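Researcher: Re-running this chain for the archive, since the previous output was lost when a drive failed. Same request as before.
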Amino acid sequence: METRRLEVLQRTEEHCVLRLFDAQDGFLDEHDLGATALQELLDESEQRYRTGRGSAVSLGQRLYHWLNPGGSPWLDRMRQDHRDLCLYVTVAQRLRHLPWELLQDRGGFLCADPKRPFTPVRRVHERVLDGIETRIRSLRILFMASSPVDVQPVLAFENEEALILEATRKAGLDLVVEESGSLEGLKDWIDAHDAGHFDVVHLTGHAEVEGDRPVFVLENHIGQAERASAEDIAAVFQASNRFPRLL
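Model: Regenerated structure tokens:
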């Protein structure tokens, strides 16, 4: 699969540049981009996300024309030259908020084209892994499922646990299950083990939005719903400074 990288360079408050690089970070092309055009796309995307209104097709086409201007049709050229294309999008300048999966030309959504596979990938940055010890052992996972008695539907999380075990059967997996589905239970497991013991903490359950805040629906000490924000969950690990590699 051929890869390209897209980034926005902010030169002034009102002026930025859209830049294109190849897989080896070699510069290919750039064109000027008014900051207002980017902000308009961000506002439209945010409005559709919050209200559920508006056309996904229209938003995808607007994003396509923004990325593929008439005077410099990058995307058209790349798709003509390469059957399989992966576009890495840096998350600077809020590019991560744009609905890259909705990119659409006149023929339909690019991600749904079986003849010319197209994959957008949001890239944070290149990480330096110096200082991280590599261990030859089974992957350690802490699995916590939450299904409060007063929230429907009741989740069949035993099936999910079984699927995880089956999918990783040949890889060698050390899976432990936290039974309470509560923040307190999660904290007890984290505090009872050394820093770095768990490679992955896997949470499964219901989620919803309260006001403008997304929350995860955990359980209290009697099995009823207790909502937790991302900050509440992060506090469990911050208290002991024991973070998993993946949550």
